[in-house]
Amino acid sequence: MVTADVVLDALGDASRRLILEHLAEQESPVGVLAARMPISRPAVSQHLRVLKDARLVSEHVAGTRRIYRVDPAGLRALRDYLDGFWGIVLHRFADLAEETHAASAGRDEPGPHPTEGNPS
């Protein structure tokens, strides 16, 4: 099972994020990825290994080439991690909205008019 820590570490490198973006558009072999990148083919292979370990990328063999594609398993781990934050943020927002509403409701209650009870 892949963890969010592993996925976040893998995505900490700009080249790996770029490779993942390319693969999100179209599955590709290393050579095609390397042609689109400002890094060498061996460097692309090393980055793909890290992405595979994080389950962000999978591969299948087509003839003599390995074709890489995005693996939803790693993305799912990342999404679950971020959804946890989103749930916390929404809960805190709802609490704040309730507090703000309660505070404004307390101010809107009619009180004695400032001129009442003061004979002029």
Structural features, described:
Keywords: DNA-binding, Transcription, Transcription regulation. This is Transcriptional regulator, ArsR family. The chain is 62% helix and 12% strand. It is mainly alpha-helical and 120 residues long. The protein has one domain (1-106): Winged helix-like DNA-binding domain superfamily/Winged helix DNA-binding domain (Arc Repressor Mutant, subunit A). The chain has a 3-stranded antiparallel sheet with strand order 1-3-2. It is elongated, with a radius of gyration of 27 Å. The model has no long low-confidence stretch (mean pLDDT 87).
Structural descriptors:
DNA binding; mainly alpha; single chain; Arc Repressor Mutant, subunit A
Q: Topology of this structure?
A:
Blueprint: H1 4-10, H2 14-25, E1 28-29, H3 30-35, H4 41-53, E2 57-62, E3 65-70, H5 72-108
Antiparallel strand pairs: 1-3, 2-3
Q: Report the sheet-strand fraction.
A: 5-15%
Q: Rg, please?
A: 27 Å
- Ends apart, CA distance between termini: 80 Å
pLDDT < 50 runs, ≥5 residues: none
Order of helices and strands: HHEHHEEH
**How would a crystallographer describe the biggest sheet?**
3 strands, antiparallel
Domain HTH arsR-type: 1-97
Region (Disordered): 100-120
Keywords: DNA-binding, Transcription, Transcription regulation
InterPro entries: ArsR-like_HTH (IPR011991), HTH_ArsR_DNA-bd_dom (IPR001845), HTH_MetalResp_TranReg (IPR051081), WH-like_DNA-bd_sf (IPR036388), WH_DNA-bd_sf (IPR036390)
